[in-house]
Write a structure and sequence with these properties.
Length: 411
């Protein structure tokens, strides 16, 4: 049984159901001992507990961590309850979570040394109305990730905000069953990124003023590969023209500014009903992983990509040719008339000569007046041939909608 405990800053209230104690709410207010009080509450928490942080700014100098299942950490609103790590002296994250059935809601984390919130190896994690921000604006010294769940199952991110990450604001990697909705990512290198993951729905979000708006990536050398079944719909990916500020050597450091959506080496991806525009390089890019790799299990080519019923705004007005070859190739092949959609055309060697299987072909349908530039790989390798494919009707086909991602959100 838990007992009522009252101190100057912490109030522990037992909750009763049919006369039995089943959980408690621990209320913590800002103080000079805020770190010790919050971390003690996280260590001593029992399943079913709620850790409530009142309105105000909590000045924290070390990372917080939670490893107890079925705990809720809540504030009084993302603009009211702020965990400030500007003076952080130790720890790799602001908050680390390694336990199942956890809900994080209604607070902000500012200026963490590293990732703002890292969640690893858990089942059932909810981020509800959580904000992460580096308040000095885009800077390579900022932490890499805002919301950062990895190697997890049943991930819900709803109503969140991520600002200023030097890698990705909202990132989910090597996970499965993912919903990212009603959220906003701005002034990050990558706004929203789904990487090496299975079954993700990304919808009703705004990605703006990032380097790249929304990324669907698959990379080699990771325990989970073959990212697939990702739906990106009803989003706005607009005005993503912030210069790339990723630290040297970071994979997203190759993303050109002015990119709306990039699909790299994923399969079964459906992009539909989005508004994508005012991106200075290209609105959508579909590309093969272009670096050398030794992982024999890795498949570097995108396949079974469907793009339909999107609205496209202006693009190509300020192509970033300083990052990799993408923008320069586009600019050269299009003679400066940059397309809405780009596909690099790279497929396995056998498919270059004998064609792709029907189920793996790129399908582009009902995107109003969208333009395309795809590369014919054979002509690209031969002199005196124009390798550019600009007839979007070549990619018309029957859309086969991917299934909705569903899991129990009320754990």
């Amino acid at each position: 049984m838990k007992f009522l405990k009252l101190s100057k800053q912490i109030l522990i209230l037992p909750l009763f159901l049919s006369g039995a104690v089943f959980s408690s709410i621990q209320i913590i207010q800002p103080s000079s001992n805020a770190y010790e009080e919050i971390q003690e509450a996280l260590i001593l928490a029992e399943p079913g507990d709620v850790i409530r942080l009142t309105a105000g700014t909590f000045i924290l100098e070390d990372s917080l961590s939670l490893d107890v299942d079925n705990v809720q950490i809540e504030g009084e609103g993302m603009h009211q309850t702020i965990l400030d790590f500007k003076n952080q002296k130790s720890g790799a994250q602001g908050l680390s979570v390694t336990s199942d059935n956890v809900t994080l809601q209604d607070f902000s984390i500012h200026d963490a040394n590293g990732d703002a919130i890292k969640v690893k190896g858990v089942e059932n994690i909810k981020f509800l109305r959580v904000k992460t921000e580096w308040t000095n604006g885009p800077d390579p010294q900022n932490g890499a990730y805002g919301l950062y769940p990895v190697e997890s199952k049943n991930v819900l991110i709803d109503g969140c905000v991520a600002i200023g990450a030097s890698d990705a604001g909202i990132y989910v990697g090597q996970s499965q069953n993912i919903i990212i909705r009603n959220s906003r990512a701005e002034y990050n290198v990558a706004g929203i990124e789904v990487e090496n993951s299975y079954y993700a729905d990304v919808y009703n979000n705004i990605a703006t003023h990032n380097t790249g708006g929304i990324l669907v990536f698959d990379l080699p050398g990771l325990p989970q590969q073959g990212g697939h079944n990702v739906r990106v719909f009803n989003n706005q990916s607009i005005n993503n023209n912030t210069p790339n500020f990723a630290p040297e050597g970071n994979i997203v450091g190759e993303v050109p500014s002015g990119t709306g959506i990039i699909i790299q080496a994923n399969s079964d991806v459906e992009i539909f009903d989005n508004l994508i525009g005012e991106n200075g390089t290209v609105n959508i890019a579909i590309v093969t992983y272009g670096s050398d790799f030794e992982d024999e299990k890795y498949y570097p080519h995108p396949k079974s990509i469907q793009i339909h019923n999107n609205q496209f705004g202006r693009t190509g007005f300020k192509p970033d040719t300083s990052k990799g070859e993408l923008a320069q190739i586009l600019f050269d092949l299009s003679n400066g008339d940059m397309p809405d959609i780009f596909w690099d055309g790279i497929v396995p060697l056998t498919q270059i000569f004998f064609g792709q299987p029907e189920g793996e072909k790129l399908i582009i349908s009902n995107n109003e007046n969208a333009s395309i530039l795809a590369i014919n790989p054979i002509k690209f390798m031969l002199p005196f041939f124009n390798p550019a494919i600009t007839d979007i009707s070549e990619y018309d086909g029957v859309i086969k909608p991917l299934p909705k991602v569903v899991f129990n959100e009320n754990f």
